[in-house]
């Protein structure tokens, strides 16, 4: 393995899920729902499968899916041309990797917000660029953007800012004021923004998802990325997309076409159906996830964790120190065997494990009885 990929030999999700299976643990580690998406979407996939949509779809994605993505994006008041400004990808993961490979190279720096989704560091490395991390800071009861830290991280070599909101693993939803700062920095220093918006529909209470592309000066310098997995409970389908200006989409397409070329032929019309007709279903999912968040948060608090607030995504972070543990990483490796629950240590998503070592991430996109069983088991830690 080449040196630049040596830190990335396995993912925490693969390891933790394997450990959970080995110990028959309740898996609140890897984030995936345990119920299916909307029946209309599944029917559309079945119809496409039996209707002959089983060969290569067009390179940029099926036209009806690109048109549906354009209509969906309009809900934020932003227009994209379905032919030149939208590209369908193999999940958000490929969209992020292809964007970095197409737009950054050796000598470039990419600013990444820490903690960061694990594929970001590997994707920056595959592009040959360097990541520069800026940590979130705990302020006013939430994990907030470190505005001064972000300003200080911009150098003459900065090419792009990769930003994820709603944010995995902290559940932060960046505010308008925070995003204004990101946008102003991008404009001032002529940077590209790559936004990971896969949890765009999963925001709670009065939080609102604000796409960075809608901020002044950002439309044509933002590569906006999302995917169907989290919105419609189909994480295994791996249908994602990029919305950006024609030149940026053309660049990402140049990389994407030689990574997978295309994917998910019969799933693409089903996702088009979902974007057009199942957003009310996703709205119900959002409401039910908010209740699950409250259920797991209350259970974790009863079990002795210090729970951090979550405004979006389906993750909760909890501090293990009140239970007498110092290192959530060590605890995470013992938890499946010790009490039969799997969770993910937040420090694996960082370059500063010491600073983040007290937090565990739990996924609450599970049936209520699964959440309750996990809580019952976790209470044995006390
Ligand atoms: N970004 C974030 C922040 C995620 O949590 C995930 C994982 N679910 C992805 C990207 C990957 O999305 P996809 O499955 O569409 O590739
Ligand atoms: N996005 C999911 C998570 O953060 C898992 C994705 C994966 O397994 N690679 O848990």
UniProtKB/TrEMBL annotation:
One of its GO terms (biological process) is antibiotic biosynthetic process. The keyword Transferase applies. Residues 25-378 form the Aminotransferase class I/classII large domain. Transmembrane segments: none annotated. Its cofactor is pyridoxal 5'-phosphate. GO terms for molecular function: kynurenine-oxoglutarate transaminase activity; pyridoxal phosphate binding. Keywords: Aminotransferase, Antibiotic biosynthesis, Pyridoxal phosphate, Transferase. It comes from the Bacteria. CDD domains: AAT_like. GO terms for cellular component: cytoplasm. Signal peptide: none annotated. Gene3D superfamilies: Aspartate Aminotransferase, domain 1 (3.90.1150.10), Type I PLP-dependent aspartate aminotransferase-like (Major domain) (3.40.640.10). InterPro entries: Aminotransferase_I/II_large, Kynurenine-oxoglutarate_AT, PyrdxlP-dep_Trfase, PyrdxlP-dep_Trfase_major, PyrdxlP-dep_Trfase_small. Belongs to the class-I pyridoxal-phosphate-dependent aminotransferase family. This is Aminotransferase. It comes from Amycolatopsis azurea DSM 43854.
């Amino acid at each position: 393995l080449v040196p630049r990929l040596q830190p990335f030999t396995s993912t925490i999700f693969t390891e933790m899920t394997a450990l959970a299976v080995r110990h028959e643990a309740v898996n609140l580690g890897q984030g995936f729902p345990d119920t299916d998406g909307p029946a209309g979407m599944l029917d559309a996939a079945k119809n496409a499968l039996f209707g002959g949509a089983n060969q290569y779809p067009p390179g940029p994605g099926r036209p009806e899916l690109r048109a549906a993505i354009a209509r969906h994006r309009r809900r934020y008041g932003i227009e994209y041309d379905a032919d030149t400004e939208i590209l369908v990808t193999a999940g958000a993961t490929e969209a992020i990797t292809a964007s970095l490979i197409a737009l950054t190279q050796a000598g470039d720096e990419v600013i990444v917000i820490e903690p960061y989704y694990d594929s970001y560091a590997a994707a920056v490395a595959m592009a040959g660029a360097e990541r520069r991390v800026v940590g979130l800071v705990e302020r006013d009861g939430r994990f907030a953007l470190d505005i001064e830290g972000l300003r200080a991280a911009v150098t003459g070599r900065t090419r792009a800012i990769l930003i994820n909101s709603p944010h995995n693993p902290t559940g932060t939803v960046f505010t308008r004021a925070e995003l204004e700062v990101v946008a102003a920095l991008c404009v001032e220093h002529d940077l590209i923004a790559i936004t990971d918006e896969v949890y765009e529909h999963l925001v709670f209470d009065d939080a609102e998802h604000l796409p960075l592309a809608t901020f002044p000066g950002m439309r044509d310098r933002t590569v906006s990325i999302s995917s169907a997995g989290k919105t419609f409970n189909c994480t295994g389908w791996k249908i994602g997309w990029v919305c950006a200006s024609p030149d940026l989409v053309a660049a990402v397409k140049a990389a994407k076409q030689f990574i997978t070329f295309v994917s998910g032929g019969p799933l693409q019309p089903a996702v088009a159906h979902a974007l057009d007709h199942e957003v009310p279903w996703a709205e119900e999912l959002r409401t039910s996830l908010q209740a699950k968040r409250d259920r797991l948060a209350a259970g974790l608090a009863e079990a002795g964790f210090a729970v951090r607030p979550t405004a979006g995504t389906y993750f909760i972070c909890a501090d293990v120190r009140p239970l007498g543990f110092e290192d959530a990483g060590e605890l995470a490796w013992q938890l499946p065997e010790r009490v039969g629950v799997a969770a993910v240590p937040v420090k694996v998503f960082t370059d500063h494990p010491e600073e983040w070592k007290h937090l565990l991430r739990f996924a609450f996109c599970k049936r209520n009885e699964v959440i309750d069983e996990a809580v019952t088991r976790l209470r044995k830690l006390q």
